[in-house]
Amino acid sequence: MCQDKYNIEEKKYKHINYVERRQIERWYKTDKKSKKEIALLLNKSERTIRREINRGLVKNLTHDWKEVWIYCADYAEKRYRYNLESKGPELKIGNDYQLVEYIEKGIKKERKSPEILIAEIERKGLEFKNRICAKTIRNAIKLGTVFDIKAKDMIYNKTYKSKNKDKDICIAIPPEKSIEYRPEGANTREEYGHWEGDLVIGKKSKSAALFTLTERKTREEIIIKVPNKEAINIAKSLDKLEKKYKDQFYEKFKTITFDNGAEFRKHEGIEKSIRRKKKRLEVYYAHPYCSGERGSNENNNRLIRRFIPKGTNITNISEEFIQWIEDWMNNLPRPMFKYKTSLEVA
Fold it and tell me: What pTM value is reported for the model?
């Protein structure tokens, strides 16, 4: 017998999962669909999609190095997981949609504070499913999980300093850029022209740093002083090298392997040539937390630390001294080469 009603009702208001976040990212970023269209495609409310997109907004750099805000599914999923672990008991206001709409209207349109809204509810005898206090409203606004209200909508807009500004940048690394797809000549160290790259940080993360490149076969070292650890400085440093070596650059630099730091994730800008239409080199990325996959560069950075210890203000170090360190390393006899230098092996 066919039943019209089941004993177990289908659960409504399900949380957005990772697959749906990937869909939102494609529709919103690539297909340029509106929030309303995305809500219809996912069978969600438009308010839910607005909150989800706001949760996943991150800074990104375009091909011409302009900052834009985009929705990142990975970052949104990370924030969602973090909120699940740290939110504590579920807010009781969550399912009281009439109360949510009343508070949103009172704050955004009528410009009232949470304390005044709670006092009005009690004075007018308004009835909702739940009773809450003004502190609960403020906590929910700060979490951004219940109300469609931003800090700028509040009467007294208090700004909070971001503790981890660098971590706001989230750019997914394409699978084909994994170290697993690096040419065999780079893996076996039989072919010259495959490099490992990193930054040597000084006293402060915002001060000058050293962009270091180590050739895998010969351990040849190149050290370039950069103003800070922003991604644009990596591309500019390679632009200088391309101008310096000209046509020889494309034989000298075939690939570079970086870690997963935000300053290296703009692989399009790093690979883009300033002298020809096709790429100047290929960029690959080591697996997360696997510094041993770039061991040659890490060991050479230790040699640099003999002259520039951790905590040193690199801004005050002269270009002449940095060049002296580079020359010293390239003329250092190495046991692995039977005490030949990197320049002699090259």
Answer: 0.54
- Cβ burial of 229 (10 Å; 0-12, 13-18, 19+) is buried
**In a shared domain, residues 250 and 338:** yes
167 located within any domain: no
The answer, yes or no, to whether residue 308 has pLDDT greater than 50, is yes
DSSP 266-318: -HHHHH--SSSSS-S-EEEEPPTT-GGGGHHHHHHHHHHTTTS-TT--GGGS-
Cα separation, 160 vs 7, in Å, equals 49
Range of the domain at 182: 175-345
Evaluate whether residue 107 is within a structural domain.
yes
pLDDT at 175: 83
Are 189 and 270 in the same domain?
yes
pLDDT exceeds cutoff 70 at 241: yes
53-63: average pLDDT:
83
Average pLDDT over residues 21-39: 90
Decide the pairing of beta strands 67-71 and 194-201: unpaired
